[in-house]
Specification:
Number of domains: 2
Number of helices: 5
Structural class: mainly alpha
Distance between the termini: 57 Å
Helix content: over 70%
Largest sheet: none
Order of helices and strands: HHHHH
Organism: Candidatus Methanoperedens nitratireducens
Shape: rod-shaped
Protein name: Ribbon-helix-helix protein CopG domain-containing protein
Radius of gyration: 21 Å
């Protein structure tokens, strides 16, 4: 499923995009989709650690994390749960 998104671009930037897409024999929209997908994937890889931290701090849900990093979210969730369990055990030891 796709959703249409409308954006405004600087005319000079659009001319550069048109020149590239013409040179590559790729429609402008397809070229823009490919480049946008590349940037999103690169940013997800770049910010994986930050995303995991945001999850452990409760700023994003497991579902959001899973959407962004896929099955690795299961590992992050398990590590977080084990860390919380260990913290509770340590707290119990010091309370006695």
């Amino acid at each position: 499923m796709t959703t249409q998104v409308n954006i405004r671009l600087d005319e000079h930037l659009l001319q550069e995009i048109d020149a590239l897409s013409h040179m590559l024999h790729v429609p402008r929209s397809e070229w823009l989709r490919m480049k946008l997908a590349e940037v999103v994937k690169d940013n997800i890889l770049k910010y994986r650690e930050v995303l995991a931290l945001e999850y452990t701090m409760g700023h994003i849900s497991y579902e959001e994390l899973h959407t962004l990093i896929g099955k690795d979210a299961d590992d992050v969730k398990l590590i977080h749960e084990m860390t919380q369990k260990g913290k509770k055990e340590i707290d119990k030891l010091f309370d006695k």
